[in-house]
Design goal:
Elements lengths: L2 H21 L3 H12 L9 H15 L1 H21 L4 E5 L1 H4 L8 E6 L3 H10 L5 E3 L3 E2 L2 E2 L2 E9 L2 E10 L25 E2 L1 H10 L4
Parallel strand pairs: 2-7
Antiparallel strand pairs: 1-2, 1-8, 3-6, 4-5, 6-7
Helix pairs in contact: 1-2, 1-3, 4-7
Amino acid sequence: MNSFDSRSRAELAQRIAAYIVDNGMTWAAARDRAVKECGKGASGQPSASEVETAVRAHFALFEPQEHAADLREKRKLALRMLTVLKGFDCFLTGAVLNGAATRDSPVVIELFTDDVKAVLASLMDEGFDPQALDPQASAFSRARESIGVVVAHAGELEAVRIDILEPHLMRSNPARRTPDEYQADWEAQGRISAENLRKALENSSIS
């Protein structure tokens, strides 16, 4: 890829990020609008990780304190939910972990089990009202099942999505990335357990 192509992809990623952050657009809608405006073919489009970096860069430039506060609360909620599900192999993943979350981003948890009924029972025992969601495409292609709960946290109603995956998939971690300049190493690990999330929050003084 030549320098012009790299610059063009970066500029398109920045435009997509601005639509996501400033206009509240979904990631798919922001990409479609930016690509249509710029007339880019598939070969000239930024990857998902490039868009994520652009979103983090946008927040770092325009809303660093507000974004840090939003991430802090969403990660605290994630730790709360991981604790509720401590009897399972479960991890925080997605934009709340990697730092590209907006205010509307759900907390996404990967849970590896064959016993979906046990997950539902654990949530209901804790007073949650789990709802079936359409499984979303992810680094693993598609979850076996997805469960959604709405949780009151820090004066807001927050969405949590729990993606149920086959246990053998835990051996791979396709969402792992090399951290960019806006991330700590742990934020780029693809997934993080409750124990390690708690340590990371304590070490970064945002618990």
